[in-house]
User: Fold these one by one.
Assistant:
Number 1:
Amino acid sequence: MSMSVICRWATRPAKWLDRVRLNPDGAVTIVTGASSGIGRCLCEMLSDRGATVVAVARRRERLEELRQRATVGKIIPVAGDITDGGVRESIIDVAANVRGGAVDLLVNNAGVGAIGPFADASPARLREVMEVNFFAPAELTRIAIKHLARSPAAVIANISSVLGHRAVPNKSEYCASKFAMHGWSDSLRAELAPRGIQVTLVSPSTTDSEFFDALVHTGADQTSSSIGSWTPDRVARAAMAAILARRSEVILSLGGKALVYADRIAPPIMNAILKQK
Ligand SMILES: NC(=O)c1ccc[n+]([C@@H]2O[C@H](COP(=O)([O-])OP(=O)(O)OC[C@H]3O[C@@H](n4cnc5c(N)ncnc54)[C@H](OP(=O)(O)O)[C@@H]3O)[C@@H](O)[C@H]2O)c1
């Protein structure tokens, strides 16, 4: 190999250095779970920066409030349950109508939690958590892909959890759903790279939202304690930065990083620490 070839190879721009950013101004975006918490903050941030946001959740009146506070036309509410295939079709139809079929960003954020021992829970709890947190976003993504492929800098942002990296007791259904989202995101990222679509996995730790008021199939005696919760606004700002930079994955909060990296380094120690007495 000649010296000039080696020099050209060594000085070529590294792909990760000249990564294309997602420009929110004029972008067509979809955010599920838009009626509260992280999703609501993301809708406000995206619409404030010039994006059109198809905002999805079941609580219609919350979406209407969101629409009224934004610049006219920037928030398009779609009220419905994402586990319903017809609702998913209408989300994509509405988004595809904004700019000739192209969609720039899909944020799979809607999610529910459940707390309590697996052995005592009903099969319905596992079914509901997996339907909302995994099957619905996966199927919504499947029908969005051909529209995302028409964007110059598309992103699928999956709002997962640090519990999709390290599981803990009494949240088995939730951990399973977020592990599923994690594995699926990694696979999809590799598959969609040739089509120019990035998959950004965002893993927050405990967030001070309505999440713990909306737990499914969970007794009032089941609670979860945590220190150092982030506000939804802070999580959304960090998620937004990762999305616009089209990063592959981001783990939020020091505590979250400590949990995930300690588990990667020494899983047996984490297993011993988390074992129920
Ligand atoms: N809070 C935490 O501690 C925490 C930590 C790590 C990760 N996360 C993840 O962050 C994401 C957002 O949670 P959050 O903390 O912002 O909670 P949140 O305030 O409870 O928001 C959840 C959103 O999901 C929507 N949603 C739930 N089920 C739905 C369904 N079947 N169809 C359509 N929308 C549905 C809710 O709206 P409607 O009720 O109006 O439908 C709501 O807008 C979730 O994926 C969650 O797993 C949360």
Number 2:
Amino acid sequence: MVIGIIGASISGLIAGKRLAEAGHDVTIIEKSRSLGGRLKTVELDNLNLDVGLTHFDVSTNTFGSFVKKQVEKGAIQKWTKDFGLYDGIELFDVDPNSDSRQQYTGTNGLQSLAESMSRWVDIKSEEKAGGLTYIGPDRSKKRSWMINLTDVSVFECDAVIIATSAVDAYGVLQTAQNKTETRRIIRHIDEIRYEGCFSLAATYDNQEVPDWKGIECEKSAIKWISNESSKLDTNQTALVIQSTPEFYRKHAQKSEEEIKELLFEEVSDIIGSWARRPQSTYIENWKYFKTKNPINEYFMELELEDAPLALIGDYLGGSSLENAFVSGYNLSEYWKKKYTEVTA
Ligand SMILES: Cc1cc2nc3c(=O)[nH]c(=O)nc-3n(C[C@H](O)[C@H](O)[C@H](O)COP(=O)(O)OP(=O)(O)OC[C@H]3O[C@@H](n4cnc5c(N)ncnc54)[C@H](O)[C@@H]3O)c2cc1C
């Protein structure tokens, strides 16, 4: 079948890759110029810094075997088993309560992982899906669905996968013509809530690279400090500082300069006054950083035999990178069994 996937992040890319390998004709529509969604890497002073997800661990075999292959290919590296801890008063080199799980990261920014996963499918980037039109069984057109793109063109396909945040999925789905079933799904995803955060990247000149990899912070406006230099082959110091959701809620209306100042003040209290004198900076405003109340199933499907449609993403089954991956993987397994022999 011709499958149109909306969203080129980990869930859409893994589903697309596996369905393409099974013989389907897959196109991914992505509104941004770059791929990866919340896997976002920016270049600052020639260093690739992760301003989205900075690292992850592994719990399931499904994700574990994917990560193992990516480590062998050199796209992912083992980073560390221990982070530091700032408890609001004191900084510990190693979190005394750490369960020492292996943490992974990209070898040159995590966004390149998304780029390497896109090889198996066609990508239409800088194309926003504005809505969906259900053609139905008595159709004069060949395909069951039309994905309406905001440049007024359409993409016709037999099946649709929406691999975006719940908020974006809601926007796309509510335009679909078929009322009853889409309403059931819309009701579910309308309840999903997200937390936001700011991610501040900073490079430093003439500053020795710290010997810790990252610091988890408690009782602070900062949630996490990543020593990005420790992932790269460089002598230049580069940090990524993530705010707490509480800080985000309180300061979301402030200017970027004010937010930077507040975060630099806080980080210098934790790691030293040098941290408030960056060479270059970049700030990202993540309105949809993490789901607060995920749905307890890995994917949702519209039950229309002649017009398959499914939703995947990290708000289904959990709220992590691994969940997003397993969500896309599980749907692809299910659709491969359901549709491949008959239609591919
Ligand atoms: C700062 C930060 C830190 C994080 N830290 C961690 C962590 O420590 N551990 C962890 O497990 N996870 C973490 N996460 C979460 C993790 O990054 C996400 O769970 C995961 O990347 C979500 O992937 P996804 O496939 O669900 O979709 P997303 O990454 O949300 O991507 C959706 C894609 O859909 C596209 N899109 C949306 N609407 C449309 C449309 N209408 N038309 C076309 N394209 C569209 C978007 O542009 C985007 O590319 C973090 C995230 C952030 C931002």
